[in-house]
Amino acid sequence: MTPSIQIIYASQSGRNQAIAGHLQAQLASRAQTVITEISQVNAFELSQNDAIIVASYTFHDGELPDEAQDFFEDLKKVDLNRTKFAVLGSSSKTHLHFGRAVDYLTIQLNSSNGEQVADSVKIDRDADDDDWARVDQLAQRVLASLA
């Protein structure tokens, strides 16, 4: 049976939307994927997926984006039933709290009984070749966890 992976993104500049598209291209041959903008996600249905990948930017100086707030609050009430997950996202190293939204989401997904299957990935602004390699590695770890 083909595993299902939901790719969820929050993107202001388009960076994380591009990352979500890249992930879908990497995963499509071995998994059924769907990309959803974070404000459109029903957190209570996440455990219907075999895995989820969340890509979010960090707003201002260490905050979750406004459009991710409801999703984050709903995660506090959800049992992910060991749904596999990974988190990544763009930020800026000029901020005091680089990539903190990635940290917040990772902590909450773990607290919601998810199973983290890849180290979180933080990207400074636009992804370079090394960043894309880390994104690809994250995708491969998610796939390997479903084998």
From TrEMBL:
Pfam families reported in the protein's UniProt record: Flavodoxin_1
InterPro entries, alphabetized: Flavodoxin, Flavodoxin/NO_synth, Flavoprotein-like_sf
PROSITE patterns tied to this protein: FLAVODOXIN_LIKE (PS50902)
Domain Flavodoxin-like, first and last residues per copy: 5-143
Cofactor(s) the protein needs: FMN
Top-rank taxon: Bacteria
Keyword Flavoprotein tagged: yes
Purpose of the protein: Low-potential electron donor to a number of redox enzymes.
Protein name according to UniProt: Flavodoxin domain-containing protein
